[in-house]
């Protein structure tokens, strides 16, 4: 079954067959519109894949959407969160309160959730502002750091590792660790029907955000991890994708190949940009300003500029790992700068 993206107002809960249902849950004020929350049936009760944004309208949509499919939210056995972002994990805690079920998340994202929950408002803002200054944001650092952010998600009861089977009696729902979009992003392979819940890892019409936080880290390579994760899911043949946004589609491998090509092209363009600025090595913020986004830089708000800088940093880091870019030493406290390297 394949559906096309429509506005949230045109979305309806759907029976996808094989004991799988989808419920569109709105994301207030976000151009994505909605998250597709999936319910997988079992003799011991349904398990949700993701839960949606923590908002009263989203909660009503999830609760009522499940009810329209004959599912009482109080009967939910558990929620598997594909990753910790608020449009996926936000309502997991509310579902747990109503159902007394469990929340499961990959251990790497669980670590991040504990870190986020341990940061008070002031310390979080200071962290953001310092990160922006080290990236070269200058006077924009404070504006980005005070942008509104949602409450952190609930802590999970279960921490997943790659290959784990989800507690879903009578079904085989296997964890496939696909880091990149977040360190602990997972896809979930429903082996008894040949379907893959792809979260944000493989989407049919857009590509997920891949960023580094803090921007100047040199001990991780999220984009490299993401590309390797794309190769991993591409090895699954004849698998239908059930993504968290947009629409379902039949060929995970083909779409994974397209997304890989998109990022390789972006890396090529970025290296050319660095070559043109070789006499004045740019900061991460300088690079972000010059890259192509879905809107002009001048039209991006503070949070969108911060995310753009994170994505610029991730692509710069992959070039660095490949030996195609390097960091330029400056005075202590100066923003990090990059230049192209011969290869």
UniProtKB/TrEMBL annotation:
<protein>
    <submittedName>
        <fullName>MBL fold metallo-hydrolase</fullName>
    </submittedName>
</protein>
<dbReference type="InterPro" id="IPR050662">
    <property type="entry name" value="Sec-metab_biosynth-thioest"/>
</dbReference>
<dbReference type="Pfam" id="PF00753">
    <property type="entry name" value="Lactamase_B"/>
</dbReference>
<dbReference type="InterPro" id="IPR036866">
    <property type="entry name" value="RibonucZ/Hydroxyglut_hydro"/>
</dbReference>
<feature type="domain" description="Metallo-beta-lactamase">
    <location>
        <begin position="34"/>
        <end position="245"/>
    </location>
</feature>
<dbReference type="InterPro" id="IPR001279">
    <property type="entry name" value="Metallo-B-lactamas"/>
</dbReference>
<dbReference type="InterPro" id="IPR036388">
    <property type="entry name" value="WH-like_DNA-bd_sf"/>
</dbReference>
